[in-house]
Every structure is written in C-alpha cells, then in structure tokens.
Structure to design on (569 residues):
C-alpha cells in the first residue's frame, strides 16, 4: 500500500518536473520577446550601461512616453489597422465569391481557371514587387491606403481553403434551399456565408496578422511620414542619433501587442487555419 | 444536383473580383518583368531598346550579384534545416499531453506572430557589440551585424527563430499522429528517445518534414526584409540576398536593368529548386 502511494507520488513529481522543464524551454524560446519587454521598462542609463543587464533595476514608463511624444505612433497604428483590417475584409469577399463559383457551379474552363488561381502561389510577391510599385505609382496611388492595400486584396490559399470548406457543405441543405425557391445569390448570403463563419474567421484572422506584419510593400509605396505603417515606423526610429534603444523596444512592444493578443485569443482557429491551408489535394 | 437554368456567365461573375487582382498584381507584373528584362530601360524603368540576354549576362558577371546568390544559398542551407530541427525537438517535448500543455504549446508557437521589422529591431539590440546581451551571454566580442564573416549567420539565426513557431505546429500535429502502439512496442524493446525518434517517428512524419522544408525553402529564397533593415544591403554586398539586391538596384540605384533580371533569376532558381525537391520527394519520402 505504502509502496504504491510513494510510487504514485514519485510519478507525480516526475510529471511536475517535466512540465516545469517544458515551460523553462518555452521561456528560452520566448527570450527575445521577454528581453524586449524588460528593456522597454528600463531607465536609459541602465540600457546604456556596460555590461548589459536583463532585468530592470527600476521599472519606468519613460520609454513609452518618449515614443508617444516624439513619433506619431498612434497614427502609424491607425494606418496599420486600416491596411490590415480593410484588406482582410476585401480578401474575404474576393475569396468567398471565388470559392462559391469553384465549388457550387460546373462551367467550361473551371479547372483551368482554378489552376490559374493556384498558379499565383508559384509567383512570389517579392519577384513582382518592383513592377507592382510602377503600376501603383503610374496610377498615382503612392501614399494612399488604396495603393498599400492593392496587393493584399486576394490570396489563392484563402480561396483554396474556403473551397474545401464549401465542398463539404451539406448537399441536402443546399437542395432544400433551391426547392424552396432560394436564388443562388440569396443562398450564398443567407445560408452559405452564415454557416461558414468558422472558416471566415480563420481566414480573416490569419490574413489580418500577416498584413499587419508586412514591411517591404508598405515601405515602398509610402514616403510621407504620416502614411507609414507601424512596421515601417518602428524601423525609422532607428535613424535618429543617441539613446534610442529604449524607445525602439517600447515601440516594438506596442506593435507586438495586437498580434500577440489576437494569437493568444484565437490560437485554435489560427492553427486549424494554417493546417487546413496546407493540406493540399 | 445543380439547380437548372444557371447561366454560364454567373460563376464567372463571382470569379471576377479575385481574378481582377490576380491579373493586375500577379500575372501582369510577372510577365511584364520577364519582358522588360530583355530591354534596356531608363531610370523610370521604361523600355528603351531590345538587348536580348544582355542584362542577364551583365549581372551574372557582377560580383555583387554573384555574392548575393551565394548568400541566399548559405542562408537557405543554414536556416531551413536548423529551424525544422529545433521545432522537431520542441514537438517531441510537447508530444505528451499534460496539464500545462496549452501553456508551453502556445509559448513554442508564439514566434510565428512576430513581424520582420520588430524582430530586426530586437535582435539589432541583442547583437549590439557593447550594449547587446548576446556577446555578454556568450562571452564573445563580435560585431555580429557589421563583421562580414558573421552577418549572414547572425541574420539566418533571426529567421530560424521566426520560423520555429510555424514549423512546431505542424510537427506537433504530425508527431501526435504517430500510432501509440508503435511507440509502446519500441518502448518495450528498450529503445531510447533518440532511437525512437530516428527509427520510428522520423520516417512516419517525413511527409510533414518535407512539406516544411519546401515551404521554408520558397520563403527563404525570397528573404530580403531582415537584410534591408539590418545591413542596408550590406556594404559591398557581404550580406545581400537576391531579392535585397533586386531591391537596392531598382529602388536605391534606379537601375531597373539589373533589377528586373535579378528578380527573374531569383524566380527561376527558386522554381528549379522546388522541382528538384519534388523529385526528391518521390524517391525518399515515406507515405503510408
């Protein structure tokens, strides 16, 4: 009796130790973020001190105030929010209509068009970056939200994922809707879209995070400071002289918070989205 | 099944918005870039004179471009396997479900929510020779981002870190799919963790590993953001990649001749690598 109890206790201790180890590894993985967070709360003289330290001796919000006073970080945030929010909504619209056509209709050239759609995955956006910039500047859309959003308005992976989802839509429900005299477009808006909210949310969230995080394109098509996104803005802080590390880390934290928060809240959805998108064929 | 009387153009109408963007921002610029690469262009990128392959021949003799091709390969060869390997270790640690699984699974996956520019800023401070924590922890005295010998590796490490989360999620799902009786049988025979991993888990999850390698291969071949932010293309191209070369040639130097040609070469190399990998897949990847 005693023996089995102590054995069980030993097993429990083993489990606890293992979990502590796993969490320790997690802290190691997250070290750059933790470091950034700590530095952002340090006093400037501690950041400048040699040898460098990790934990703030005195916690201060000085760096955060500094960023908010010296840079239009609020405006950068709004720009990023508009860019990521609106282009993700547009992606939802383009993807759901296209997926609707690919999954509920039979028409000539459907397979060919679907191949053309998936073919875009083979052309990396960086390869066409410069030519797209010329298109946008030719349309006089430099420094506009429209110019920034233009290249993020459609994504073949999204269409693919939604098509997979629509194909599994209950055929009986669909037929019932038609028997009741439901038109195609009414079926789309009244039945298909409302029942597909899980996949729509997944697509929206993953595309929001990826657009919020993009750097190169928004930098290329903007040159006015007030049109910068946070990602571009945070690297611009770097160009000033002097003691900028604290404010840069504070700005980085502010930029991180939205995506990390979304990631933590919607972790399950994001994971299923990535996995779903990757399962080809 | 299908409702009667659907007019042929109706589905095409629904495809119109998506295809508008596909054509305007993917296919049109792609073919235009290919076409333009055979011409001499002015500083606005406007075609002036047909020169055939001259642009390609010129940049293939440009030491700066050749260095950037080499760097891109170093970058891919270093960062892709290391990131998958670290993620695999994390997946094996997280394999067994415990009470705090959700906590550390989230921790391991979190780097995927990070952006290029924020990572560049954080690591720039960490790599700082005097104020940064890395020299302090390693007891070294290296200028990671300015010393030509180390820059590309220092940057590779950032990208390894950024890719861990994504790779981890896939590998975790794959590792958890390994049938429990196989693992138990191996346990009975007294196989250690290392043998269990190499002999049983690895062959079963090889399709996932393959998918991740292809996926990060394509991403890493296009790598440019970190280089552009951290080294401004790298003095004398010591750390530049094919796409950062394309960027600095077109945007900074307004030499679109070199810009277009390097974009297309980057595309071709990536494309060929992918084809090779699929050939490799047929031969070596284990599907059940």
């Amino acid at each position: 009796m005693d023996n089995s109890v102590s054995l069980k206790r030993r097993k429990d201790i083993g489990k606890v130790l293992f979990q502590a180890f796993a969490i320790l590894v997690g802290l190691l993985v997250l070290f750059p973020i933790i470091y950034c967070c700590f530095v952002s709360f340090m006093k400037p003289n501690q950041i400048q001190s040699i040898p460098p330290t990790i934990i703030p001796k005195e916690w201060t919000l000085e760096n955060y105030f500094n960023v908010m006073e010296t840079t239009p970080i609020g405006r950068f945030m709004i720009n990023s929010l508009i860019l990521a929010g609106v282009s993700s909504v547009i992606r939802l619209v383009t993807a759901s209509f296209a997926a609707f056509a690919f999954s509920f209709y039979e028409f000539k050239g459907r397979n060919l068009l679907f191949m053309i759609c998936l073919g875009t995955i083979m052309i990396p956006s960086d390869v066409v970056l410069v030519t797209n910039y010329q298109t946008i500047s030719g349309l006089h859309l430099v420094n506009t939200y429209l110019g920034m959003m233009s290249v993020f308005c459609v994504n073949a992976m999204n269409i693919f994922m939604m098509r997979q989802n629509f194909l599994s839509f209950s055929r009986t429900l669909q037929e019932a809707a038609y028997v009741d005299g439901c038109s195609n477009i009414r079926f789309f808006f009244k039945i298909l879209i409302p029942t597909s909210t899980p996949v729509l949310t997944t697509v929206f969230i993953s595309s929001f995070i990826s657009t919020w995080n993009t750097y190169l394109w928004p930098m290329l098509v903007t040159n006015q400071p007030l049109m910068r996104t946070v990602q571009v803005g945070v690297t611009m802080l770097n160009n000033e002289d002097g003691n900028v590390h604290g404010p840069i880390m504070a700005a980085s934290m502010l930029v991180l918070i939205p995506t990390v928060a979304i990631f933590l809240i919607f972790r399950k959805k994001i994971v299923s989205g990535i996995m779903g998108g990757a399962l080809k064929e | 099944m299908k409702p009667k009387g659907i007019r042929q153009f109706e589905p095409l109408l629904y495809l119109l918005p998506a295809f508008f963007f596909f054509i305007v921002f993917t296919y049109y610029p792609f073919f235009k870039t290919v076409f333009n690469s055979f011409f001499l262009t002015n500083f606005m990128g406007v075609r002036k004179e047909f020169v055939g392959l001259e642009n390609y021949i010129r940049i293939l003799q440009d030491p700066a471009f050749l260095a950037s091709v080499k760097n891109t390969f170093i970058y891919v060869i270093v960062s892709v396997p290391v990131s998958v390997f670290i993620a695999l270790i994390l997946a094996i640690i997280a394999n067994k479900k415990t009470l705090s699984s959700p906590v550390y699974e989230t921790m391991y996956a979190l780097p995927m929510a990070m952006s290029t520019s924020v990572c560049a800023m954080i690591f720039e401070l960490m790599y700082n020779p005097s104020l940064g924590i890395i020299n302090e922890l390693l007891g070294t005295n290296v200028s990671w981002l300015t010393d030509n010998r180390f820059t590309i590796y220092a940057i590779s490490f950032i990208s390894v870190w950024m890719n861990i989360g994504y790779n981890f999620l896939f590998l975790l799902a794959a590792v958890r799919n390994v049938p429990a009786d196989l693992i138990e049988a191996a346990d009975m025979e007294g196989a250690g963790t290392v043998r269990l991993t190499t002999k049983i888990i690895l062959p079963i999850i090889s399709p996932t590993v393959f998918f991740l390698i292809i996926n990060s291969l394509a991403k890493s071949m296009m790598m440019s953001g970190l280089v552009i932010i951290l080294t401004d293309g790298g003095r004398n191209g010591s750390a530049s990649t094919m796409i950062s070369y394309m960027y600095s040639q077109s945007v900074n130097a307004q030499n679109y001749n070199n810009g277009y040609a390097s974009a297309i070469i980057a595309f071709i190399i990536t494309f060929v690598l992918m084809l090779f990998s699929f050939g490799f897949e047929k031969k070596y990847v284990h599907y059940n």
